[in-house]
Write a structure and sequence with these properties.
Blueprint lengths: L8 E5 L11 E6 L4 H14 L3 E4 L5 E3 L4 E7 L6 E4 L2 E5 L4 H10 L2 E2 L11 H7 L2 E2 L2 E2 L4 E8 L2 E6 L16 E8 L1 E2 L2 H18 L6 E4 L9 H7 L6 E2 L2 E3 L6 E4 L5 H19 L8 E3 L14 E2 L1
Parallel strand pairs: 2-5, 3-5, 3-20, 4-19
Antiparallel strand pairs: 1-2, 6-7, 7-13, 8-14, 9-10, 11-12, 11-13, 15-18, 16-17, 17-18
Length: 303
């Protein structure tokens, strides 16, 4: 195992690497240039007993103010893509937006709704990312994961797909093969533009956020319940419930993780009180949120 000199940095800030723009520093930070380096860093973390966080686009994630007391591995340099016929193979760090654009240029349809999600395909697979009723898992043929230092291939049928779940939780994703369908380039482009327009009109894209905070309860929309509870615009510190979409918490400037956690607790309590509905977070917590607290360690790459 060889680690390139200078590619294991200490006490590196994480807030700029998340879409929330919140979080303390990583004890160690690495950015592998290829899969062999990714494997080496995963082995190193295991040998040293360090908590490990694979970080893609940094969405859907709240990092504690105390930072991450282990190794954070950025996957953003792992973004090779190959297109063969109707199939696209992409490494885990490839952004969903970039992948959707490449598919459109190749005349392949299926990724139009996912192109506006600010995350990587690795995190998107873990969460079975979706928008406008379309889900990434519906397109998957195979997923490549690191297991005991080797790349193993999991077929779609070996995984358990559902709302915000995939069966890939805790896995270290290397890449995936998606199966798309042929389409008209101009028609695909128009569809992408239309869906992105809907996003801009319905989501607070002008402020840092982690995306949707809560999963939608069965037969209901979390944002509608939060709005009906009168919480639009409610804030703790610089963390505020969006006035545009109540299932988004936005960072109004210098929000801390503790502000977001407190605001989430208020939202859950109020919605439970008004509607007897228990909201469940969609975002992932990582790092240290209170002094002397054990590290919360999510598994696998993240959005």
């Amino acid at each position: 195992m060889r680690i390139r000199e200078g590619n294991l940095r200490e006490r590196m800030p994480l807030k700029g690497l998340t879409t929330f723009r919140i979080g303390g520093p990583a004890r160690f930070l690495a950015e592998p240039a290829h899969v062999d380096e990714l494997r080496d860093f995963c082995v190193l973390a295991q040998e040293e007993g360090w908590p490990l966080l694979l970080l893609g686009g940094g969405s859907n994630l709240l990092v504690g103010d105390g930072g991450f007391p282990g190794l954070v591995v950025l996957t953003r340099s792992l973004r090779k893509v190959k297109i063969e016929g109707y199939r696209i193979w992409a490494q885990s760090g490839t952004s969903l937006t970039a992948l959707a654009v490449l598919a459109q240029k190749a005349g392949l349809s299926g990724l139009e709704a996912l192109g506006g999600i600010p995350g990587s395909i690795g995190g998107g697979l873990v969460m079975n990312a979706g928008a406008f009723g379309r889900f990434l898992g519906d397109l998957v043929e195979e997923v490549e994961v690191l297991m005991e230092g080797k790349v193993e291939v999991l077929t779609k049928d070996e995984l358990v797909w559902g709302y915000r779940k995939s069966g890939l939780e805790g896995k270290r994703i290397v890449g995936a093969t998606l199966s798309l369908v042929p389409g008209d380039r101009e028609g695909i482009s128009r569809e992408m533009a239309l869906l992105n327009k809907k996003r801009r009109e319905s989501q607070p894209l002008d402020k840092p956020s982690a995306g949707s905070i809560f999963r939608n309860p069965q037969g209901e929309e979390a944002g509608r319940l939060i709005e009906k509870a009168g919480l639009k615009g409610f804030r703790v510190g610089d963390a505020m419930v969006s006035r545009l979409h109540a299932n988004f918490i936005v960072n109004m400037g210098e929000a801390l993780a503790k502000d977001v956690v407190s605001l989430i607790e208020v939202i859950k309590r109020e919605v439970e009180g008004f509607f007897s509905v228990s909201l469940e977070e969609e975002i992932v917590y990582a790092g240290i949120f209170e002094e002397n607290e054990d590290c919360l360690v999510p598994g696998g790459p993240l959005l």
